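Each letter names a residue; structure tokens follow underneath. Both lines appear below:
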Amino acid sequence: MEANYQLEANYKLKANYQTDKLIEMLSIQSPEEVLSDNATLYQKTRGRVGEAAKFHLRQLEWLGFEYKLHDNITAIREYIANIVERMDIIILNDHFDASLLLLRKRFCWKYTDIFYKSFTVTNSSQELMSQSAITKLLSINLGEQLLYEAINKSWWDQSGVEKSTFWNEVSLMFLILSG
């Protein structure tokens, strides 16, 4: 048990370090430059080189997918289907307020249980990724894209999401929280 905890702690520490390094690189360079032939991305990591070392299947690996199957699209799709089938609660950051409302209804929480103080954190000098950079990331990270699409579809399939009254409630909550 303790060995598993230590292994998980080491993995999270390493993942956080890699994420911090990527954020640091993005604060110095544009996303386009980071995704181009940047020497700092081309470090050997667990047998992978280049962009794949930083981006390829990070979430799937965290969920237990064996990286040696990374070229097997059927294995990736089957693993994703297995993961999504076992998910009981889905929260999307893209629809955070709506996800909180779904949780409120599911667990019979009060509105005060889901209210939060919202802060806007942006860096207006940050360049947006070009379409070619996005396409390059998605080609490196097809498994992650498939995972996101499957989880997103499951979120939209939840009961109540399709009702206009639900989205009116989301809008009202947004107005209350941002006001």
